[in-house]
Specification:
It comes from Nocardioides thalensis. Pfam families: HTH_3 (PF01381). Keywords: DNA-binding. One of its GO terms (molecular function) is DNA-binding transcription factor activity. The protein is mostly helical. It has two domains: about 1-75, 434 Repressor (Amino-terminal Domain); about 80-125, no CATH class. The chain contains seven helices and no strands. The protein has helices at about 5-25, 30-35, 40-45, 55-65, 70-75, 85-95, 100-125. Helix 2 packs across helix 3, helix 2 packs across helix 4 (about 55-65) and helix 6 packs antiparallel against helix 7. It is elongated.
């Protein structure tokens, strides 16, 4: 069977990490030590067998002196289409007061809100030039403050 999106994302992440490690002239053991992870675990990440947490990706990025955001995108944690560079996601991922599970939950909720808004925007655009919600209109200015029964015609 074909691998799902997660498998492909992890493989591309592993390939990217390997490329960055080789470009930095670091052995697998050296990078593992610098990032504070075990050598076998790092090897599994590079081979696409494990998907690391955002915290581990941040440690690896720091050890490689590359952008953690790039690793988050390659791992599928951030979307490159977010427009503003994923500042909300980065804030969540960088919050040391949250557990990994809490971070993932917040990211999932945020992504669902974005998806919901995208659907709403698409439906609105598909409706074309639809009039805005009805707005209550005031009576004409010349009779606005007058009692309708007291209006007389001058003659």
């Amino acid at each position: 069977m074909a691998k799902g999106k997660v498998g492909k994302t992890v493989e591309s992440l592993g390939d990217y990490l390997r490329e960055q490690r080789v470009a930095s002239r670091l052995s697998l053991r050296q990078l593992a030590e610098l990032a504070g992870v075990s050598n076998p675990y790092l090897s599994q990440i590079e081979r696409g067998l494990r998907k690391p947490s955002a915290e581990v990706l941040q440690q690896i990025a720091k050890a490689l002196r590359i952008s953690a955001e790039q690793l988050y995108i390659r791992a599928g944690i951030l979307s490159p289409d977010d427009g503003v560079g994923g500042s909300v996601e980065l804030a969540i991922l960088g919050d040391t007061g949250l557990t990994e599970r809490q971070k993932q939950s917040l990211l999932d909720v945020y992504a669902s809100f974005l998806a919901l808004n995208a659907v709403s925007d698409a439906e609105f655009a598909a409706d074309g030039d639809v009039a805005a919600e009805p707005v209550a209109t005031d009576p004409p200015a010349d009779t606005q403050d007058q009692d309708p029964q007291k209006i007389t015609t001058e003659g």
